[in-house]
Amino acid sequence: MMRWMVRNQKGFTLMELLIAVAILAVLAAIGIPVYTKLRGSAKHAEAYANLDGIRTAEEAYKMANGTYLTCPPSPRLPSTLATAGNQAVTWQALDSDGNATTSEGFALLGFEPNSEVRFVYEVEADLDNDGNDDTNNYFAGALGDTDADGNQILIVASASRGPHVVDSNDTIPTGFMGGEAEATDTQD
Predict the structure, then answer these.
(1) Residues 46, 120: contact at Cβ < 8 Å?
(2) Which residues is 123 bridged to in the sheet?
(3) Has residue 147 been placed in a domain?
(4) How far is the C-alpha of 42 from the C-alpha of 53, rounded, in Å?
(5) What is the CATH number of the domain that holds 93?
(6) How many domains does the chain have?
(7) Smallest Cα–Cα separation from 70: which of 25, 120, 133?
(8) pLDDT digits over 57-112, tens only?
(9) C-alpha distances in angstroms, 81 versus 12, 26, 50, 91, 150?
(10) Is the dihedral of CA 166, 145, 42, 30 positive or negative?
(11) Residue 184 lies in a domain
(12) Is 5 domain-assigned?
């Protein structure tokens, strides 16, 4: 005698699978842009922290010397902006000729980040281009491409205003950041 066994079929129907896939697609559509924005914000945090450090070093330098110090762009980033946003480089203070230094610019200021950087930093203290560093103000900036889309973002700070993305209230000194400081990427 054969017994017919009723099997309890287990599994998902096609409709249940389609609903699950649709839910995952909606969650991914929401999550991926949020994740991308958070990654950009994390990279911006480097610039904000380093500009705060530069600001502290400039104030200490002024207290000791009576003037702010101009620091040439440092460090040297890879030549292609598209790859610069994804690559961090070891910090190296440079002199006005672009050579490594231990006695000028950021080295003299006493500023050195504690990790690799994705931005180029510069301080302009001679805001009136008279050959003498101004005693009243300076303009510090961090220029970089954090999302590797070829658009740079400029984050600036001064004696009167902390780090922020450049806006219409900022007057950028002529030649600042090698004349590339006009382009900003606010999508990061």
Answers:
(1) no
(2) 71, 140
(3) yes
(4) 17
(5) 3.30.700
(6) 1
(7) 133
(8) 999 999 998 888 989 988 876 655 444 455 788 888 888 888 888 888 899 999 99
(9) 49, 33, 20, 17, 6
(10) positive
(11) no
(12) no
DSSP string, 89-136: B----B-TTS-B-SSSHHHHHT---SS-BSSEEEEE--TT-SSS--SS
What is the C-alpha separation between 29 and 23, in angstroms, rounded?
Answer: 10
Q: What is the pLDDT of residues 143-155, one digit of tens each?
A: 887 777 777 888 8
- For the record, the structure tokens of 54 come out as 């530069």
Q: What's the one-letter identity of residue 52?
A: D
Residue 4 in any domain: the answer is: no
Q: What is the pTM of this model?
A: 0.71
**Domain containing residue 163:** 14-179
3-state secondary structure of 71: strand
Beta bridge partners of 100: 94
